[in-house]
Structure prediction request, 138 residues.
Amino acid sequence: METNKPVDYYKVLHSERKASDEELKRNYQRLALLIHPDKAGHGHEEKFYLLQKAWSILKDPVSRKHYDAELACYENDQLLLYDTISLTEMGYDASEGVYTYQCRCNGVYYLKASELSSNEVNIGCNECSFSIQVNIRR
Ligand SMILES: [Zn+2]
Prediction:
């Protein structure tokens, strides 16, 4: 799991995970000035590129949310709702009687056919701390 860990864009922006949009923007602007290749000179292009990349993802609330979810998937620090899907999106293993759905971390969500009593059910990934909500309307 370590190998696929995403780059920590918050670190790139010298910011806390909970930083507000304003703080992120301030830090981005300060760093952009500091390591701009025109000013900082040769050798900073890569850093500057990474900074642009980090900012392009974190400045947008939607992509930031997706990114946060991706980060959390690798950090196991809290249980997060990764996705809401319908039962028809899951694969079905008839011999085992289980529905399966692949997690972003390459782990798997398992749902036994015998557990399909209610309209929706939350199941956790077998590898990370994500869970998904499955809507069971047929
Ligand atoms: Zn997972």
